[in-house]
Amino acid sequence: MKYINEKESFQEYMERFRQNFLESDTYVIWGAGEKSKKIRERLPDNILFVVDNDKKKQGMAIDGLIVKSPDALKELKENNIKVIVAVHAYMDIFRKLDEYGILEERYCNYREWLLIGDYFLKGCISVPEVSFIVNNRCTLSCKGCIEYIPYTENKRDFPFKEIKESFDYFFQYADYANDVVVVGGETLLYKDLAAVLKYVYEHYAVTGHVRNISIMTNGTVMPDENVLQALKLYDIVVRISDYKNAVGNKNIVDKLLTIFSQRKIKYQIENHFSRVEEGKWFDMGNPLKCRNMTEKGLREHFDKCAVACWAVWDSKLFNCNGVRSNIANLGAEGEPDNDWCDLRTDSKEKFIKYYLGYNNKGYYKFCNYCNGYGEYINKTSLLPGEQMQNDERG
Predict the structure, then answer these.
(1) Of 172, 200, 207, 187, which is closest to residue 139 (Cα–Cα)?
(2) Of 64, 97, 121, which residue sits at a domain end?
(3) Total structural domains within the chain
(4) Are 67 and 59 in contact (CB under 8 A)?
(5) Does pLDDT of 88 surpass 90?
(6) What is the mean pLDDT of residues 346-373?
(7) What is the mean pLDDT of residues 76-92?
(8) Which residue of 97, 189, 252, 271 lies most exposed, with the fewest beta carbons within 10 A?
(9) CA distances from 248 to 115, 255, 381 (A)
(10) So what's the pLDDT on residue 235?
(11) What's the pLDDT score for residue 273?
(12) pLDDT band at 340, cuts 50/70/90?
């Protein structure tokens, strides 16, 4: 996450970014996956090469660009070459770049580059991705759940009318979203899911405001016929988290893949696990247990955290899932001036600030109840999908 220096105005920050990163002739991209695709499309003649931690990708060519080991960055001496980090946990990569001796003014994350680039060059607000929350009901009770489902008492579907309003308010700010994700809870439990998919497709995909629509599922629920038809008709990608090693007979991923293949519905298996230990989740900790950090400690904690989950709930934009889940699912009051951007009343400048990770304090009150996300801050891990027992809530 990013905290803009209190001594620098937001406009000064934007102008500094424009000079540093939009006027460069040459770039290196960290990340050979989907997140870098739009940047590669924008800069076909300005990318020197791509780097990626995945050794299987190193040596390959994507869009005519060679994928190298990150060690290749150690040889970058020219200050005019900028590094755009196109991975989810970009704060961890920033630490690596610091270790390589690459100065902070020479690297940025892909969200900054895309949003600020479009703001200056096209006069529009374009966001790489955003999630819309439809419920907090789930079939599982996973340890380390970022939604804090095991601690949630009031599990429910959020009204369809509120979901539509969230989309409408969001796109009064954003002109374009590359990826829109509909998520829960367990998304396939949402009774009006087909109607939500129809709404976002007809109002925002057809009109050119949204490029890709997907839903998340934990692989334990079979969609009904209306949802299956909507997935196919509206070209939705189903993103499946496969927890077969933890949930036993509840897992029906193989059946889902058979149905999706037969119906020609797009899907992908998600592998959004941590790198602390191969195939594990970061353990975010007990959200009811205060860490008793000082204000200085909270700011340092926030600055190290690599969480980057832009989600809309109740027509509010959150840039931390922990903060949103604490308010939406655990009933915390939150701090209106700091914890979210209210899409009904706040300015476009606050929307841009918030999407870039800015907040007024430089931390969230909830940071005191979270271990943080990313290798640099969190060394604890869990088996993905491992189920929590009632006596483990603490």
Answers:
(1) 187
(2) 121
(3) 2
(4) yes
(5) no
(6) 90
(7) 84
(8) 271
(9) 42, 14, 20
(10) 98
(11) 53
(12) very high
Distance CA 136, CA 153 (A): 10
Q: How far apart are CA 107 and CA 93, in angstroms?
A: 10
What are the structure tokens assigned to 296, written together? 């200085």
What is the pLDDT at residue 271?
A: 67
Instruction: Return the pLDDT at 237.
Output: 98
Locus of tokens 């590669």? 40
The secondary structure of 131-166 as a DSSP string is EEE-B---S--BTT-TT-GGG-SS--BPPHHHHHHH
Q: Give the CATH number for residue 56.
A: 3.40.50.720
- DSSP 8-state symbol, 361: S
pTM of the model: 0.90
Domain that holds residue 103: 10-121
**pLDDT band at residue 218 under the 50/70/90 scheme:** very high
Placement of tokens 């001594």 in the chain: 7
| Residues 227-237: b if buried by 16+ CB within 10 A, e if exposed | bbbbbeebebb
Helix orientation angle between 225-233 and 253-263, rounded to the nearest 10 degrees: 50
Q: Are residues 108 and 132 in the same domain?
A: no
